[in-house]
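Study this protein:
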Amino acid sequence: MSTPGDPGWLGWLETTWLAEALRREPLLYPLLEVVHILGFVVLVGSAAMFDLRLLGLSRRLSVVELARHLLPWARRGLAVAAPSGVLLFLTQATQLGRSPVFGLKLTLLALAGLNAALFHRRVFRSARDWDTEVTAPRSARVAAILSLLLWTGVITCGRLLAYL
């Protein structure tokens, strides 16, 4: 962990009572990491299952029904992972704020969100036409591949933060 007290808003974040409590209590930080990872597992697991369906696995499953089932789980995972990630960030704001790996992770997160939003606003609107037993359109398959690559990048950056 970085030493609190660096100037600027990142240093200020590290000296908040919440950041200090997270650093001070021995089990709080590791438990928060577990919560963050569990949220990510639900989020990325849901996205990956849907992406694999778009790529042609389990074609007898309805794309529309699968989206209806998995999308709420992805949102729940995001609702757990995002705030827990912010809390983890508070404890090392200065170090993470200067890390190119952390910047890359945030960029990949934003691109994954943009990819999902574009898919649901454009490609998914015609999903009833290729719902079951039909190869998804190229745009859906490209979105699925991008999603899998972006989420893999996010996870990789998250793990590298502990070592770089």
